[in-house]
Amino acid sequence: NAGVTQTPKFQVLKTGQSMTLQCAQDMNHNSMYWYRQDPGMGLRLIYYSASEGTTDKGEVPNGYNVSRLNKREFSLRLESAAPSQTSVYFCASSEAVGWSIGGTDTQYFGPGTRLTVL
Amino acid sequence: GNSVTQMEGPVTLSEEAFLTINCTYTATGYPSLFWYVQYPGEGLQLLLKATKADDKGSNKGFEATYRKETTSFHLEKGSVQVSDSAVYFCALYSSASKIIFGSGTRLSIRP
Fold first, then answer.
1. Counting one residue from A and one from B, how many pairs have CB atoms under 8 Å apart?
2. Which residue in A42, A103, A109 is closest to B103 by CB distance?
3. pLDDT at residue A42 in the model
4. DSSP of A1-57
5. Contacts of B78 (CB under 8 A, 6+ apart)
6. For chain A, what is the radius of gyration of the CA atoms?
7. Cβ contact (<8 Å) for A107 and B32?
8. For residue A50, what pLDDT band results from cuts at 50, 70 and 90?
9. Per-residue model confidence (pLDDT) at position A18
10. 3-state class of B6 per DSSP?
């Protein structure tokens, strides 16, 4: 059982280049999430998808786009990378459809993608 | 808005020492509270959670009690091991703010 997988693990971009981070889960989860993790800060939510076919902005969506390709896959795209987007990106998934009212839904995280923008 | 504040690290302890990592929160309503752990090179894993006041979450010898009167959710373990070395994140969920993570506390355990 692979859980949540992310590709690539490392990436270096030049300012202005574009790229797509891939995420897939094999747990038949309904909700998927993209976070960024910066030094000295907690994870910040970029976008999430409460169910197949829906996406919503999180705390820091500017400069990113997402696609929920199907129930398994949720990709994050940087159209024109900037140095401020240098970070570690984590994808996560959870079973609930949307944010459960009790907020008890456990999120399962991938291993992360370390992105450097020069 | 809602927020989570954790004690700054790094925290360095000797094996078998008692651990406390402080976490306080600001939130309207009744958020759910979580502790996640991140081992080197890995993504976050849920360690424990509590969904209402006075609930105690526990897992792998770690405990945290949801204290509404002090808006706290401190993580404790009676006897730490080298394998507990990791970064620990306190987090809260509310319908208004979704999930918010603290900045993380790095824990190092000396043999």
1. 55
2. A42
3. 82
4. ---EEEE-SEEEE-TT--EEEEEEESS--SEEEEEEE-TTS-EEEEEEESSTT--EE
5. B18, B61
6. 14
7. no
8. confident
9. 96
10. strand
